[in-house]
Amino acid sequence: MPVGVPKVPTPEEAIKSEEGETRDEDNKIWVDLYNRLYVQRIVFLIGPLKMENANQVMSLTVYLTLKNQIKDLYLFINSLGGALMYGVAINDLIRSVPEPVNTICLSKAASTACYILAGGEPSKRVAVPTARVLMHQPLSILCHGVAQEMDMESAEMIRLYKTVIDVYSEITEKSWEVIQQDILNPTFISADEAKAYGLIDVVLYEGTTAWKFPTMDPDRDSDTAKDNGPKWPFFLDESDNSKS
Fold first, then answer.
1. Where are the alpha helices (DSSP H) in 78-146?
2. In the chain, what is the greatest distance between 2 CA atoms, to the nearest angstrom?
3. What are the backbone dihedrals phi and psi of residue 184, each rounded to the nearest 5 degrees, phi first?
4. How far apart (Å, rounded) are the C-alpha atoms in residues 70 and 164?
5. Could you say which of 28, 34, 127, 226 is the most buried, measured as most Cβ atoms within 10 Å of its Cβ?
6. From the candidates 36, 136, 195, 220, which is the catalytic residue?
7. Residues of 81-116 as b/e, b for ≥16 C-beta within 10 angstroms?
8. Share in percent of the chain as helix, strand, coil (round to 5)
9. How many angstroms separate the CA atoms of 111 and 34, rounded?
10. Can you tell me the distance from the alpha carbon of 93 to that of 100, in angstroms, rounded to the nearest whole number?
């Protein structure tokens, strides 16, 4: 018998009751495990990166940012990568939102997933001791069509190739030439090697105090934290609208 995703209780003030949710006698509502974790600002990227889970990660990131722009967001990663365009979009997003985004590698972060892992908040990019990380140059399946279409795809791949190297170079503080050479021969590296390279900041050995694992703190359910900074996205700043 397969094991399903369990339902867990969550405070009524954290999530409004919706159709299909059941309340117990303690005035709590029951939701599936992932929805409960979303309330705690915990997001998962599991499996191959495709349109569906990429859009889920990005939409959750935007939603949680609009709810609170101060509290940390946690992105747990266990993926061998996937479509580079989605990875570039997620990397751009988590590096542009105002709140710190913790990226945590649970097992493997390869290819595009490595690119996302490295894009987390400096000092808050984390991996478990047995994690493996791999970065490589962008890959493409040769397209079939007229010469102009193939030429356009080739130009786009070159653009993405340069973007990936630029970002890795900025994050790791290594030269363009070093990154270019290292991604030619992709090899899985350990968490400690990834830290030495500059892809992550902390390896979660027992007793590590450099990074704290998120807890089910009731205070994290509320959106009462003071946020006096500019609103995100900046073009939606309500203070500007009130002046007009």
1. 84-96, 112-118
2. 67
3. -70, -30
4. 28
5. 127
6. 136
7. bbebebbbbbbebbeebebbbbbbbbebbbbbbbbb
8. 40, 20, 45
9. 25
10. 12
Cis peptide before 233 (omega within 30 of 0): yes
Per-residue pLDDT of the chain (244 residues; tens, 9 = 90+): 455 666 766 655 444 544 555 555 456 677 777 777 888 899 999 999 999 999 999 999 999 999 888 999 999 999 999 988 899 999 999 999 999 999 999 999 999 999 999 999 999 999 999 999 999 887 765 556 666 667 777 788 888 889 999 999 999 999 999 999 998 888 899 999 999 999 999 999 987 788 887 776 545 444 444 454 445 555 444 444 444 4
CA-CA distance, 31 to 15, in Å (whole number)? 9
Residue appearing with tokens 């996937």: 82
Tokens of 1: 């018998």
| 136: annotated active-site residue | yes
**Residue position matching structure tokens 């808050």:** 124
Positive or negative CA dihedral for 110, 112, 118, 124? negative
Specify the fold of 41-206.
Answer: 2-enoyl-CoA Hydratase; Chain A, domain 1 (3.90.226)
Distance (Å, rounded) from C-alpha 143 to C-alpha 141? 6
Pure H helices in 68-190: 84-96, 112-118, 147-172, 176-182
- Provide the residue ranges of all domains of the chain, joining segments of one domain with +: 41-206
